[in-house]
Write a structure and sequence with these properties.
about 325 residues; 12 helices; two-stranded antiparallel ribbon
Length: about 325
């Protein structure tokens, strides 16, 4: 595309024929290379969450109006649309500075007896910039930016673990440990727990495939001759499986705490150390639901290989 005669959103100057121009790979916004380098990100970064796409009609005046239509979260600094009630980053309630008396109009006193949402009060405290509001010398807001979904649950857990506690309760990791770890991007633990699960369930799978007529007559004969042994082995491994699930249930949060803090420290070191901004945590951490499908496919493939190997060895 020819950008000559269009505006750079950073400096507001028109692009000329010999200008060095770079284009944002996400939204297509053109910038002078030096302007982009000075900003360190796309001038329309905060609009990417709205699936923004740059068009040739964009001008500094329109971008200024767009910026004026944003509300800045006082806790985390994220820009939000004027109509938003809560920050899209930290969940804190948004208040317009121009709204006097809680938005009820000039000269009207607010109801001092109105209830305050304890969850919102907790979130505001969590994202405060106090020097004491840290985990391992990292501001809590940065840990929350990495955790993303359900950070209101994890942050108090992490604070207690930073003080020395290791045991907590995670019901999801009891039911589906490999799915929990995969969703939180902890692939090492996801693969380990998946392999353990396949091993412990192997006698049950053998019985199920036998009942479905999957094996050859020779393999069926061996299974029938050792039916009692397979059943006893299944009962024993079920107990081991239960014990493994209890362990993951009690220590999954601590494993996630260590995973999160190591990742946050790496991000801070990679960006020169010190406090970071929310965009540094874009695309990392949080949940990835697609990983559920991936780990289930991997588990299915490993199970199939184990059953095939069993049938070949008999």
């Amino acid at each position: 595309m020819n950008f000559i005669g269009k505006y750079c959103p950073v400096c507001g100057n028109l692009f000329e024929e010999n200008d060095d121009i770079v284009v944002c790979p996400d939204c297509g916004t053109p910038h002078h290379r030096e302007c982009y380098r000075a900003e360190g990100k796309c001038a329309n970064f905060m609009r990417h969450q709205e699936d923004f796409r740059w068009s040739a009609d964009e001008s500094p005046r329109e971008e200024k109006a767009e910026a004026e239509a944003k509300v800045i979260c006082e806790n985390c600094g994220m820009e939000n649309s004027r109509s938003a009630k809560q920050c899209v980053s930290c969940g804190c309630p948004l208040e317009e500075e121009s709204a006097s008396a809680g938005g009820m109009g000039p000269g009207i006193e607010p109801d001092m007896g109105q209830s305050v949402d304890p969850r919102m009060a907790f979130i505001k405290q969590m994202f405060s910039s106090s020097d004491e509001n840290t985990i391992e010398d990292v501001p809590v807001r940065e840990v929350a930016w990495f955790v993303k979904g359900n950070y209101v649950y994890y942050i108090p857990q992490f604070k207690q673990m930073a003080a020395g506690r290791k045991v907590s309760f995670n019901f999801m990791s009891f039911l589906f440990p490999h799915i929990y770890f995969a969703n939180r991007r902890m692939w090492f633990w996801a693969v380990i727990s998946m392999i353990v699960s396949v091993i412990f369930s192997l006698p049950v799978m053998i019985s199920q495939f036998y009942s479905m007529g999957f094996f050859t007559a020779e393999v069926n004969t061996v299974i029938e001759a050792n039916a009692d042994l397979i059943n006893r082995l299944a009962a024993i491994l079920n107990m081991f499986d239960l014990g493994f699930r209890v362990i993951t249930c009690l220590f999954a949060n601590y494993i996630y705490y260590r995973f999160t803090m190591k990742a946050v420290h790496r991000i801070r070191e990679a960006n020169g150390g010190g406090n970071q901004t929310v965009e540094k945590y874009a695309g990392v951490g949080g949940l990835k639901i697609l990983n559920t499908l991936l780990i289930l496919i991997i588990a299915g493939a490993v199970s199939a290989i184990a059953i095939y190997a069993f049938s070949m060895l008999i």
